[in-house]
What we know:
Helix content is 42%, strand content 13%. Among the domains are: 10-187, Rossmann fold (3-Layer(aba) Sandwich), CATH 3.40.50; 307-411, Transcription Regulator spoIIAA, CATH 3.30.750.190. The strands form two sheets. An eight-stranded mixed beta sheet has the order 3-2-1-4-5-6-7-8, sandwiched between helices. It contains 19 helices and 15 strands.
Amino acid sequence: MTAIDRSSPVSVVGTGTMGQGIAQVALVAGHPVRLYDTVPGRAKTAADAITARLDRLVEKGRLSATDRDAATARLGAAESLAELAGSGLVIEAILEQLDVKQRLFSELEGIVSDDCLLATNTSSLSVTAIGGALRVPGRFVGLHFFNPAPLLPLVEVISGFATDESAATRAQATAKAWGKTPVRCADTPGFIVNRIARPFYAEALRVYEERAADPATIDAVLRECGGFRMGPFELTDLIGQDVNEAVTRSVWESFFQDPKFTPSLAQRRLVESGRLGRKSGRGWYAYADGAERPEPSTEPACDAPDTVAIQGDLGPAEPLRAMLTEAGITVLDHESDQPDDFIALPHGAALILTDGTVATGHPVGQYIHFDLALDYRTCTRIALAPGADVDPRDLRAAIGLFQRLGKRVSVIGDVPGMIVARTVAMLVDFAADAVSRGVASAEDIDTAMRLGVNYPRGPWEWSEELGPDWARNLLLAMEFIHPGGRYGASLALQRQANLHEKRSRP
């Protein structure tokens, strides 16, 4: 792979936030950079803004004054597209309208040479469709930077249907030479991050719509138990509810209304009400001066039993066995006719890691489900979902057990897969499906999800940790309760699970 030579000019069309950020990245990497915008004077204003940001980097000691002066000397504003002739790379960051982008690149083809790489920073449109009208579509790629471009390392390099491999590898090498972490992706709705991330928002919204928990509690469980940097409600408030909902709807429609990508009615109503998040002063949370942030539901202190019994292997929750012993609780072995592995509570209830079923009315006994944790030792909160028929004394005992382990406890409604587990299972399924369809490699998907949206693990890392059969089984149970295809395990995940089970047999 050979990156574009640093002496080759890079031109950026569109001088909004993203355009300025991309231009700054190319400039600091050593390229001459030309800015162009259809609005007279805006390119010059953008160049001044970039120069001011470079000045601030010098003040913070992140850039030398010599490098700043050299960079600003390479920065220029173009008054017409014709001034972009001689560019080695042109990146557009303009309005997200297909016809507007197509006209721009068709016009650019008459200006730049045939070996000039053309790239779009689109986050929602088809790279194939944008480049479809070009005379030389093979040199057209997607270069999707994440905002703010100077700070975030991830760049999705998207190959359209007609993109030449040499163009994609050149774009990848260029992004890497700029200090970014490029991942390769086929042209698919949402690319990698916006495709794979949909369940993170969708499952939280589904739990909310089913009135199992409020936004503050769901956010807290995903942060403090699942290890995510932000919860989905606070994150969509930051992104903008209208923006997040539009991406969800775009991906859903692009997949011909596949039920796995179905948008949320609750989020649609939030957008219709004008509660768009931080930018409007209110979304799921209020942001006016003095507004109080709602607290997650947290149970008061309960007594833990001195002794519990455990039947079988707790699977991903097996660390709890040693943790209970270390906390001074006597742990006995338990045997019964019940098929599941669980912690037996004093009054007959079974405390069991959620498996995608509901706890209420379980045919073999009283059940309390607890959620999946990224790490049971280090997590600070756990969610419990008791069946409606559970003895209240056992619910208090379950709360007390986890409190003895140093965890805050949130009791939520009895929904299948609870919060973290259903989210992780869906992420694993989406990733398996994407790899099997040639969207991206497993490694690039994990990299994209860690760097693009700060996930504590990539979906494939979770799959390797938990086993693909864990995700498949949980989703099959959820699909039985919620038929219609949303939770149907993909063919790829089912194949992986079958192979895993076969290899695990003695």
